[in-house]
Structures are given as structure tokens and as C-alpha cells.
Amino acid sequence: MNGAAEAAVNAQKKISGFRRVPPKQWFKLAVYSLLFINFLVYVTNDLVRMIHTVNTSWTWFDWTSAFATTLDVAAWLLLLMLFELETYVLSDDAFTQRRVQAMQALRLLCVLVIGHTIFAFGDYLYKLQTERVHHTDVDLCSLAGQELSYTHNLEYWDLTTETCESLATGREYFQFDKNELITDPKGWKTEWGLAWSDFIEVVVWLLILGLTELMVRLQDRGVTRGRLMRSIRASKAIFYGVLWSVAGYWVTLGHYVFAWDQALWILGFMVIGMNLSAWRDEIEANHPDSADSVIEPAH
User: Fold this and answer.
1) Where does the pLDDT of residue 2 fall: very low under 50, low under 70, confident under 90, or very high at 90 and above?
2) For 194-212, what is the mean pLDDT?
3) Cβ neighbours of residue 17 under 8 Å, at least 6 residues apart?
């Protein structure tokens, strides 16, 4: 076979292989790719807020708190990839002791990062309540020139003598976040609501993570049905409902990207659920009498 003919055959093989990729895999690739793009959006958002709040007195915790969302999403992406490896990509023979230990170490690191996010969000809620400065009957322009940033619904403007008149909405304002930010009562209510929605969301996602991890461990031992499995699925459905409610709240504030990201993450974990369903069918086909019993773990 000459070079041109061989190249044509190889190209045809590649095209055929390309076409043989199941639609499910293209769906996964699309979801995971969109999640990564949204991760970059959150990095940008954290950078913007950091620019308006950073000061020389920041500690290590202040810096990690400023990028809590970035760290949190990075940890979730890694966890999602670990679930994909464990429930679909890797065969049982691939789970060597060293590889399992490495995956467990990465999973622990991710959980620690998510725990830091929960603490950071909780700390922010506490400080919003205890460290705010409530200004009444004050002219906003009198606070200009103090390196403050005016904020409303996650938008930020430098508070200067040139901008203060256009930003002023009355004579009542709230100063917060180490006194670096200031807003009016409506903006304060929005900030408070967004802080609570962030905290609730990350806690609920951690609960879903725990339930998904439990499902993986149970199926690894051949348990695919029964009361416990039904309870886990019902609990996850309730938690997903809470997450959809949070997404709805964000939509009412005009944060469509946040709601879109929430939908993508739910789809991402639905993909893991699809993997678990296929794995369950395989277990039940190989061990028809073991749906409620424990068999030798695969890894």
C-alpha cells in the first residue's frame, strides 16, 4: 500500500472511531467543558472583588477567603473527575493500592478545601452581622476619598468625589467587609441574601457529595437496592430541589450565570448518577442475588 492510500485508510479509521463515540460521552464532555469555562468566570469574579477589598493588613486566611469560591469550584472539579474515573473510566484491575491511596488523598484534600469554603462563608456571614457600620443621616460624598468601594448586587465602583453623587440613593448606608465596602439598605439586603445563599449551597453540595460517596462504596460492595439506597436517592432529590431553589433566587437578582453554573453542576452529578446506574446494572447482571447483600469489593 502506498503512502497516500495508507494515510487515507488511517484517516477513515479515525473518522469511524470518531463517529463511534457514544452520545453519552459527548454529553459528558460538553458538561465538563462548560463547567471548566464557568470556573474561569468565578476566578474573574473573585479577582474583581479582591481588587476592591484588598489591603496590606490581610492575613493568609483573608487571601484564601477572598478566593474561597475559586478554591471551592476547583476542588469540586477534581472531585467530579475522581468520581468519573472511579465509576466509569477505570476498570477494576486498574485500582492498585497505590492508585487508590492517591485518589483517597486527593479526595481528602478536596474535602478540606470545601470545608475551608464553608468556614469562610460562615465567617463572612458572622462578620456581616457583627462588624458592619450602620450610617444614618449621612451624605455619601462625605465618605468619598477614604478608599471605599460602593457595591450593589456584586457590582463595584470606586467611591470618589466624582462618582459619589451618581451612586448616592439616600442618607442611610452600611459599611462592611473590613470597612472596605459600602452600600445602601437595598444593597445590604441583597448582600445578606447572597451570603446566605452561598453558605446554604456549599453545605447542601457537601451533603450530596457524602451521599454520592456512600452510594459508590455500597455499590463497590455489591449493594445496589434496598431501603438504604432508596433513602439516599430520595435525600439527594430533596437536596437537588434546594439547589434549584437557590438557582431561582439568583435568577431573581439577575445572576443568570450563577444559575446556569448551578444547572451545569447538577447535570455533572447526574452524569455520575448515570455511571452508577450502568455500574448497578452490571453488578446485578453478574450477581443477580446480591442486590441487598454485600459481596467482595471490587477495589
Assistant:
1) very low
2) 94
3) none
